[in-house]
Structures are given as C-alpha cells and as structure tokens.
Amino acid sequence: MAETEFEPRIIAFLCNWCTYTGADLAGTSRIQYPPNIRVIRLMCSGALDPVYVSKALLEGADGVLIGGCHPGDCHYQTGNYKARRRVAILKSILKQLGFDEDRVWLRWISASEGRLFADTVTEMVATLKAKGPNPLKGAWDI
Predict the structure, then answer these.
(1) CB 3.0–4.6 Å: which of 19, 49, 62, 90 could bond 8 by disulfide?
(2) DSSP state of 74
(3) What is the pTM of this model?
(4) Are 14 and 42 in contact, with CB atoms under 8 Å apart?
C-alpha cells in the first residue's frame, strides 16, 4: 500500500479589500497555486481575533495565513497595524508555549498582486511540508 504524501491544511484569514481581492485576481488570471488553503474573508485584517488563529491551530490546521493591505494602505486607516501588533504578541505567546510560531504567517498582499498571493501560498505549502504535520493535530484525537 502506497503511503500518501503529507498535504498541509492552511486556514487563511484574508482582508476583503486587498488580499482577498488579490486571491480573486489569482483565480481569474488562472494563476496556479496549491489547493491546500481554506479562505475566511474578513473586512479588515485588524478585525482578526488571535483566538481564531489559536483555535485553528488547536483543531489541527498545519498553518495559518493572515493577509492584509500593505502598511499605509488600509481602508480602515490602522487595521493592518493592529493586525501586525496582534500577530507579534500571538507569536510570542506561541513561542513561550513551545509551539512553532512560524506556522503563522502575516503577509501584505494588495488587490493587484495575484501572483504574489499564489507565490505566497506555494511557498507556505512547501515550508509546511518540510516541517511536517501540526504536532497538536494528534493531541486532540480520541
């Protein structure tokens, strides 16, 4: 019986105005990227509660991608700065708990950067394949 290759599951929280639109552009431009990502659209990356990121990781997601507007381009003025601060704090907490903080990525991708979105997803999938499955994935199995 052939052993199947590990395919990471990624949860992506994307800003409606920039990164989600960039992902849409990648799709409409037929730019190929791995299908390992599940997108949750937010109105702003600043609206992301770190509890949602923690919950995704605790429930077995192998990685979390947070996408927002470039600094200075936020439609709500300071949302991406809030996201940056929250992710920095979340990563420090994950590190203190002994969890691999590099499973959480924060990237700025504008609406016109469909190629960058596809390249980011491709890079994240490759990185997570090298890291292996989320160690918390099996911890909650009954």
Answers:
(1) 62
(2) -
(3) 0.92
(4) yes
